[in-house]
Structure formats: C-alpha cells, structure tokens
Amino acid sequence: MASAEQTKQPVLKGRVSRAGILGFLSAQGILVFFLLSMFVFSLFSEQFLSQSNIMTVVRQASIIGIIAVGVTVVIIGGNLDLSVGSMLSFATVLVVDLHDKIGPMNAILVMFALTLLLGAVNGFLVGLMRLNSLIVTLAMLSVIQGLVLIYSGGQNVDIANQGGTWFAFFGRGYVLGIAVPVLLFGLLAILVQCLMSYTGYGRRIFAVGGNPMAAVYSGIRKNWCVFSTYLISAFCVACAALVLGSRVMGSQNNVGQGYELLVLAGIILGGTSLLGGAGSIWKTVIGVLILGFIQNGLLLMGYPYYTQWIVTWVIIILAVWLDLANKRKRLLTTHS
Amino acid sequence: MTSIKGFFRGKAAIQPIWLFVIAIFIFFSFMSEYFLSLGNITNILVQTSTIGLIALGMTYVMINGNIDLSVGAILGLAASLAVGLQDHGLTIAIIAALASGMLLGALNGLVVWKTGVNAFIVTLGAMLGIRGLIFLYTGEQSFYSMNFAFADFGASTIGPIPVLAIIFLLCTLVMHLVLTRTGHGRNTFAVGGNPEASIDAGIRLGRHMMINFIIVGFFAALAGVLLASQMGAATPNLGRDYELWTITAVVLGGTKLTGGYGSITGTLGGVLAIGILRNGMNLMQVPAFYVLVVLGVILISVLIIDKKLNVPSTKEVRI
Amino acid sequence: MAINNTLKMSVLAASVFVASTTVAYAENSYRIGITQNNVGVDSYQTTYERAFVEAAEAAGNIDIVVLDAGGDVARQIGQMQDLVQQQVDAIIIWPTNGQAVIPAIRQANNAGIPVVVTNSKIADAGMDFIAAFSGPDNVEQGSSSAEMMCDALGGEGQIVQISGQPGYTTAIERAAGFEERLAELCPGVELMETQPGNWNRERAQRVMEDFLTKYDRIDGVYSGDDNMGVGALNAAKDAGRAGDIVFIGATNFAVGYDAIARGEYYGSIYQSPVDDAHAALQTALDVLAGEDVPKLNFFETPKITAENLEEFDRPVF
Q: From CA A68, how far away is CA A272, in angstroms rounded?
C-alpha cells in the first residue's frame, strides 16, 4: 500500500548525508536529473543554453513557480489546494479590470484583499471545519470560476493605456538585468524557505502535516496552522496574478485554468510528498524549472507540444519512485 | 434533530444523498413544466451514464484508499480508438478501445503496486501522458464515424428506455452485487480499511489493487465508447475534467477518500444528484456562470452536513 | 457598425432590424433554443450571447432558451436532447466540434425540429440534417489574411503561425485557408512553424517567446484571432523585435483595433459578434416562416488595416 509505506518514514527527518558519489546521486537525484536533461537538450539545440532562452524559460516558469511556493506550504501542512488555478483567474481579472477604474495602487490592494479572503474561505473550510481539502478546493475551483465569470460578465478585461502605467513593472520590468517575475519568484521562494526552515511557525506546519495528533498533543493550534497555510497560498496566487496581469496587460476569464495541475506536477517532481510533513521550497523550485526546461527543450527540438505531457508522465513517476526506492533501500515493494 | 441523526447513524435503508436526490427531484418538478416526463428522465439517465459508468469503477478504487485521475484521458483515448479504428471493423475498434482502457488501468495499478508511489501521483502523471498519447494518435484531429450504425446504436432504445441507460443501470447492478456479495468486494473494503491487516489476513494487496485499477480503466473506456457512439465521433479533448466530476459524484455518494467505506448505491445517488442539478438548472435557464457556483456550494454543503451528522472519526488522515 | 454603407454587413444588420420589427406583428410566437460553445471563454462569445438575447427580446414574440455547453461536446449533446425534449420550434447550435454534434443534430432533425448552425461550420456529412448555416466564412478569412500577409511582406519572408484551439473547426478552417492561399499567392513567403495558442492571449505570448528564441529572423506572424495576435505582439515588444515583424490576425478585437491604430499591428478581419448573432436569429426566423433559405449564409467579414480603420467602429469586445 502506497500511503502506508510512505508514512512509515520518520517525520521531520532531515536529509541523510551519506559518503560517496552514489549516496549523493540518490539523495540529490532530482538535481542530477535536472543537470543531465539540460545537457541532453543542449546537444540537440544550440539555442537551448543561450542566455536569452534560459531567461525566457525561467520567466515563463515564474508564474507557476510563484504559485507552487504557496501550494508547497499547504502540502507540507498535510492538505491540497486545487483552487489556485481559478483563484489566479479571479485575481488577474480583478486587478486588470480595476486598474483603469480605481488606479493601479488601489486595484492591487483590493485584489490582494479579496484573494486572501478566498484563501481564508479555503482555510476556514479545511482548517477550522476540518473538511477534506481535496474536495473542498475542488468545489472552490468551480465556485471561484463562476464568480470570475459573474464579475466580468464573461468579457475580457484590458488595460487601456499599456505604455504609461507603472503596473507594467511586475510583468515586464527589469532590475539589474533580471526580469521582475524571476526576481519575485526568487524572493518569495527564499522568504518562504526561510520561514519554513528557521522559524517556529515553519516547524509547527511540518509537525501538523507530519503527525496531526502529536502536534495537537504538543499544544500546537493545528486548525489555525492549516488555516494560515491557505492564506500563504492565496498570497502567492495574488503575486502571480500581478505578474500575469502586468505581462499580458489584459485577462481572459479562464486564464488560470489547468494551472493547479501544472503546479502540482512541479511540486511532485521536486520531491515533496503529498502526504504532508515533508518537503521543501527549494525542491519545488527545481521541480518547476525542470518542467519549464523540458517543455522548452522539446519545442526547440521540434517536437509537438503534447510530447512534453508524455515525458512529464514518465519522469514524475520515475522521480518519486527513485526517491522512495532510495529511502526503503530497494527498488520494488515486497508485498504481492 | 437527534432523531434524524439517529436515523442516519443507524443502519438506515436510505442514504443521505438519496434524500437530497428526492428533494431536488421534487423541487425541479414544481419549478419546470418540462422536468417531470419520461423523456426527460431518460435523458438524465443517458447524460449521467458517462460519468456514472466511470464512477462505478472509481468507487472501488476509492474504497481501496486509492484514486484515479487518469479516467478522463482514458475515456478520450478509448473514444478516439473506437472511431479511428473502424476501418478495420467495428468489433475490432471497440475491442481495441476497451482493451486500451484495461491496459492503461493495469499499467497504473502495476506502477502503484510495484513502485509504492502514491496513486494520486501515478494517475496525475498518467492523466497528462495519456492525453499526450491521444494527441499523438489523432494528430490533434477529431474523428468522424462513417458508420451510422455506430451512431444509431448510441441513440437506440428498447421500448421507451434508451439502451445507454439500460447498460448503465445493468452495470450498476452488477457492480453493486460484486461489492456486497463477493470475496473481491469484501477484500476491497478490507484493503481500504487497514492495508497492513489485510496483508496479514492473506490478501494479495498489490494484485487486488491492480484488478480494481483495471476495472476503473475498463469502465472509463466503456464510457468513452458509448459517448463516441452518441456522437458518432471522437474529439481529442473529450473527457477533460471528467475525473473531477467523477470524484465529486463518488464523494457525494458517501465514499470516503481515506478508504474503507463506500457503496455503489451511494455513488448512483451522487451521479444522479449532479445530473439532475445540471438538467434542472438547464430547464430553469439558470445562467451557466451561476451553475458553477451552485454546484460548488452544494458540494461543500453536503460535506459540512456529512461532517455534522457523522461522529468525528478518530483517524485524521488526509491525502 | 460600419460607416461604409456599401458593406453588406450593415445592410444585413439593417435587414435584421427591419425583420425583427415586422416579425413583431406576426401572429405566431416562437420558442427557439440555442446551445452555445463556451460563453465566457472570450468576449466574442459573450457579446454574441448578449446581442442574441437583446435581439430576441426586441422582437417580442420569441421565447428563447439559452444554454451554454462550456466547451464540452458531451454536455452540448445533452443540451440538444434537452431542447428536443422541450419541443422548441427551432434549435440554433454553435458547435463545440464540427463532427461530434452531427448525430445530435440528426436526432433533432428526425424529431422535426429545424436546426440552424451558427458561427462555426459542421462537417459535410451533417449538412443534410441542418436547415441552414449562418456565420463567417473562415476559409475565406484565412485567405484574406494570407493576402494581407503577402502584401505586407512584398512576397518575400519567413513567418510563423499561432493557431486556435486544436481540433476546433474555426481554427482548422482559418489555418487551412491561410496556408493554401499563401502557398498559391506568395511562394516566396515561408511558413516556418505553427503552434496552437488555444485562443488564449497568455498562451500565445509564451508560444511567441519560444518562436523568438528559436528563430533569429521572423518577418510575420499570423494569429487565428487578434486576442492571440496581441499576445504575440506583447512578446515581440518585450524582445525589442516588434518593429521587424508584421502582425496579422482575424476576428478584430478592441485590443487589436487599438494596436492597428497605433501602427503596431498590420491588419485583421473585421467580424462582429452582433452581426453573427443577428444573422443566426434571422436565419432561424426565416426558416420558421417557411422561406426558402440557402444552406450557407455567410455574412461579410472584410479586411481591416490602418488604411480603412476609420470605416469601422471600435469593437466592443
């Protein structure tokens, strides 16, 4: 049984440091795989490792990456968030639509407030009402998509004066030669990684996700911890909406459709377990980048876009399998 | 209130979801003059048969404590094969379509069994990958069946009842009997309730789970073939998001995501609830945007009611 | 609406207006059902729906049932069955797929309900079962775009294409019309690659970013609609290469109209969802009135470039 086997691992276990190259290979398998795939792609396409291509891929990956940072926290806390795609549509439509009506600053504030409110609804239902997160966020995916359509009446929203607004900074700006979306992605990743690794709050989230009962007995207010993870997730979605809205300077109502799956794929590929209590932001960043480079590399090699899905299928399973195999010290399970 | 609670908690003959189905049935009968007619009710059955058939298999997999996110993609592939291979004969096309579903189900099951990777991850990957296979096979095109006998089958009736509805109801009956009256059914509950204990009890866990993945793959493919026969065609995007609606229906029917608990009768209720809501709101001309909100809110409400009615379980395990 | 009175579409719109006022005095009252492709996915479809509902209300004697398939073929078939069940007088369908809806249309036809297909054609096999088609000629639109591309590049260059949703009839027809006419008219223009943008601006922007990395020289971009075309323009502007590239689209969106006005976008095809909706309703009414309606009713969709821009109102979507 899959879940039974995974839960047997001790919670809060750090990476086991082993001597030898093999040990390193298996512990950092995903990183090795990342470098290997970069190498293979560079053999087939000369543009692949060009600076402009790398920047393009990282910039494209940053929207999914920013969301994945937040969802990783939810997953470490032992839950799922499938509503992020709809929430991204909601936040993007809102900020773009309000931009011309009440000014960029107010639009951003309102957008953050309302997106956090949606996160709070998720948090309330999952954390405080203790409903199943998969189903709750699945239902919220539908509800929020409906709300977006009702709000916009199904119309696209656009920013009229695209040249003259400082709102363009988030999606199109550069600081020290680095694109702002990439910068924002990096900054959020570092911030949340520090939060999870070096603060009491982070330790509590790990504890809640790893062993909820023990967490409660040790005095952690589990319900509010879970609640807060959804606020972090919603905050990250709002940041992603800033980038997306500013990059496109307009929005369709279904702009975020399917993002929840890409985000999950990136997180899983990075090696964060869906069972909670383990994982890291750093792994998620790698996972999201791998997805981005595979997609780009296959396109540059001239394969149609859907080959990336087939490749993703194989490597997601391989990545998680090898990780498990490494932990249990054998390739296959023993039961019949 | 306490008496109602007792009614639900006891071994009551009627499940909560069926009360809900009856309630909305009565509601829409009053709200729309077109709702309560044999034609409309058979329409609902035909429309729900697609999600319904998949949900039958999904119930088994979910009682096992697993999940299958790849069913929408399997449905799409089976539909494309069933139409695309008709040059080689209708029988061969249909057999190939059904076989593809069982094969992919077996593959999912085998990977879950042998690698120990969580079913959610395995089938999430498969969901992406199989959709890629569909696009590869079809070259992004829709297929159209030149054979009108195929489309006529999808529209055929026995007496006043459409054949598709009859197939769905028959499958439901069979799956209900297998789950409640056979060793495989008992094992399904045992494995979901306590995997470790089921191994100790001599159940071959991996094989057992693989069989259930084959079953859900078969039903997804069957749903795909029948849907293709309704359309006389197949499109590469067919079945997208169906996994979400299927899981929703099964959960509405009372099956627990944690495994060990559930029923086919409940799943039938869950499927009908969604079908009746969609159909009724169509007839009442509820704007499409609001339908999304209503369906989501109802799903959450059912979860809350379910939580309030049931004793909080001691197991606080989530996916 | 167009100022240019010679344009057929304004004539058509006027005829719809006249017709709807005259029909109001007719004694018959009709119940017409419409099942749309995917309202809310883009503004064209939303504006279409609004125009359709308004026109029906203005006519006074039409009771309409408005349904949306949400892009799902199976759901659309269910809606067709529901409409047959309700025994509406006529069904207007905006097909989610040109082939898969044919059996459902056939069922409606067998039940004696005339079916009008709107906006996007169905496959030839289904033509016997419909009363009429009303909508733009998408193959023709593709050809027109190819002509514009040829003019703009002077018959020489390397271009890329961003197509619509894979498998969707409109996308296939536009791409086919474009590719065929381009090869015929302008063998010197090479179409290097085609990738789908799924009618989505952000997706098209990504696709264009990849094109820009992959190809050092791109002279032109043809997009299946302006929404995607503007996404491509965004990407090229970011890369500082917008000045070297000719952008041509279809279904002129407001953002595309503005971009043409700014001189950043070469041209597009003017297609009004209001005309589209009115034409569909009018065709259905003509069918119901027992008139002899031709099978294919195309409404005019002219080229729009900076030269004739002022002849057209800015699209509302």
A: 11
